[in-house]
Amino acid sequence: MSETAPIRVTVWSEFRHEKKNPKVAAIYPDGIHETIAKCLREQPDFQVRTAWLDQPEHGLGGCVLDETDVLVWWGHMAHGELSDETAAAVQRRVLEGMGFLALHSAHYSKPFKALMGTTCSVKWRESTDKERLWNIAPSHPITRGIGEYFEIPKEEMYGEPFGIPTPDELLFISWFTGGEVFRSGAVWQRGHGRVFYFRPGHETYPTYHHPQVRQVLVNGVRWLRPAVCIQDACPNSPPLEPLPEDTEASDRPVVGFK
User: Fold this and answer.
1) Is the pTM of this model over 0.85?
2) SS3 sequence of 172-211
3) Which of 14, 135, 141, 159 has the most CB atoms at less than 10 Å from its CB?
4) Residue 243 lies in a domain
5) Which residue range(s) make up the domain with 63?
């Protein structure tokens, strides 16, 4: 895939909380997806569209997924309403090469659970915890420019154990005021595609306005950019060189035990 072509990003969210909770609407008046998209649109090499749950085919029908290099996913209250067909289509595209950035409670989304193959369960607390995210992989492209750590004044707590497979690489570990720690930034290779899970982003806090969170999102999209797009196939493959003629089965020695 051409490195000079724009990175085609689709930002998906449920777009439900913003319509039901005035506190969320005050923070994200156009939806969480639009706040994230606005951040990404500041990058001249990003081509960004948005989609949400209540659109036909959840906004991901037609050629949308085929024209997406990186899919950014935020979900929370309606994981079960996503069709199994759409979840399977997202998984298929990641295996072909598409990047997938799962945010906050997307750990429990159908696509992320399908890609992980595990429970993806956490313990949680919505309170007034401060979150301190430690950058434990400062040489990774996703953590570039982040510094040793950064803090979010108020966030929902997620605590271990986190029911994910061992990450290919762990990038961030969070500490919360209540004493819990959490693997809050992790990456995996799945098929030909990459997956990045990034924990912060509860809807009642202005997390996606935080400058270092936004920098991680930009870095994450760049790292998730596909290197290839290879569709799954199971072809009958001819030999590259001539094979010796096969002998008749009756002429073959019988090997066995007495």
Assistant:
1) yes
2) EEEEECCCCEEEEEEEEEECCEEEEEECCCCCCCCHHHCH
3) 14
4) no
5) 7-118+185-231
**pLDDT (average), residues 175-185:** 98
The whole-number pLDDT of residue 86 equals: 98
First to last CA, the chain: 59
Does 97 fall in a domain? yes
Residues whose CB falls within 8 Å of the CB of residue 114, separated by 6 or more in sequence, listed in order: 87, 88, 90, 91
CATH number, domain containing residue 214: 3.40.50.880
Judge whether 29 lies within some domain: yes
Burial pattern 59-95, b for ≥16 Cβ within 10 A else e, equals: bbeeebbeebbbbbbbbbeebeebeeebbebbbbbbb
SS3 133: strand
| Alpha-carbon span 255 to 258, nearest angstrom | 10
Residue 142 belongs to a domain = no
Whole-number mean pLDDT of the chain? 95
Give kind and range of the element (H or E) at residue 12.
strand 7-13
| pLDDT range class, residue 4, cuts 50, 70, 90 | confident
